[in-house]
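User: Last request for today: this protein with uridine-5'-diphosphate-glucuronic acid, please.
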Amino acid sequence: MAKICVIGTGYVGLVTGTCFSDMGHMVTCLDINEERIEQLKNGIMPIYEPGLKQIVDQNVEAGRLSFTTSYKDALTDAEFAFIAVGTPSNVDGEADMQYVRMAVTSIAENLDHPIIIVNKSTVPVGTGDWVTEVIFDLNGKQKPAFCVVSNPEFLREGSAVSDFMNPDRVVLGSTNPDAAQKVADLYQALRSPIMITDLRTAEMIKYASNAFLATRISYINEIANICDSLGADVREVARGMGMDKRIGHTFLDAGLGWGGSCFPKDVKALFFMAATRGAHPQLLQAVMDINQNQRIRAVAKLESALGSLKGKRIGVLGLSFKPNTDDTRDAPALDIIRMLLEKDAEVQAFDPQAMAASKAEIPQLILCQNPYEAAKGCEALLLATEWNEFKSLDFNKIKANMKGNVVFDGRNVWDGWELRKLGFTYIGVGVPDPID
Ligand code: NAD
Ligand code: UGA
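Assistant: Here's the final one, the structure of the complex with uridine-5'-diphosphate-glucuronic acid:
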């Protein structure tokens, strides 16, 4: 049993702390957001993540998991301090390190015993060395010993708990093999492959992995756009490609492209790191351009189906950047809605979890209680995020509620042939027109 402090209680920090406590460790989760900590102390989850509340409750009850805003309390006797604060994009695409700097400074100010600092935030290559320097600068050499280990996180929102508990691999980077081994020991119970490497390589593995996944999606979206011109079906193309073991099936779903709090900022940050060191990351530029164009193409497809969008009412199903999360950071749906509003369309939408966050970002957005209400009086209905509950709707009811008959399946989950039989004009992404 180890004593662990986790700094940051967002999607990564709260899941990490909770899962370590579930594995029998004593965990204190710390955040500077007082409201968030107050909510957690009262059993209220500050984020929507399936299965998380139950496991938080169990471990709080068992006395292994607690929450605080005090670095002093959280660090008392802690053997490990995991940093899991945000690293959003600066205007030029560089990772904004202010939260990591604040966290590291607070650790240095409150450190009174040896500790292993584990960096779980996604941070620019070289950050591990930088953290070591910051703590040395602040504490001088007379202060307690510490080591820095990079431990990038690969969980996905919407399946964060099960991803954390069943990782394909655990990556650890350090200049100190003993420290890396001690962190590896925390993960032994998961029985997953553990890779120990140097600090910079571990940091790079995270960026290279996210950029590769984003590349696969942009690739299949480019193929989808070519399918649109040639009358092939990208869903079958992806299936046929995926049967090749060298290619595999995952991350080949064409649609409105990738969003979220990570792919967009991480591809930008990798591009920034490369470009500012004289490299020419042409592929990364194309990956970002294709992704942005996918959103613009969606609006263009609606325009070509409806003519001018001025005064037209459009219903949108799904607002979060992917299903099973309330996270709307860089959600394709919100970007598309902004473009529709700029063209003077009226937009009404429904999402199972992300309505409040979306309304805060786009006050003109009309919120609806369910998919059928979102279809009411609409010329077109756009499926932007493929929540399970949108996959089998009562389309007779949808048709009766709509003013027009255009359905745009932005995630290729509906059956275009069936919808056409019901009198809809079906638009997909790289899916041939059912009339052909
Ligand atoms: P988040 O925005 O959901 O949460 C960050 C939390 O850190 C917030 O609660 C904030 O109040 C807190 N915080 C900020 N500064 C602090 C400080 N000085 N001391 C204590 N708490 C502080 O972020 P997230 O989505 O959990 O991401 C965290 C990091 O993990 C990022 O670097 C991200 O790229 C990476 N990551 C995220 C995911 C994901 O699915 N969200 C997956 C893998 C890696
Ligand atoms: C992603 C990675 O999958 C995680 O491994 C990583 O830890 C995380 O980023 C991170 O660093 O934060 P996440 O953003 O939560 O996880 O969700 P994904 O399932 O990867 O989806 C990202 C975006 O790609 C979503 O907008 C999704 O709709 C889109 N996507 C995904 C597609 O358009 N097609 C696909 O085939 C898969």
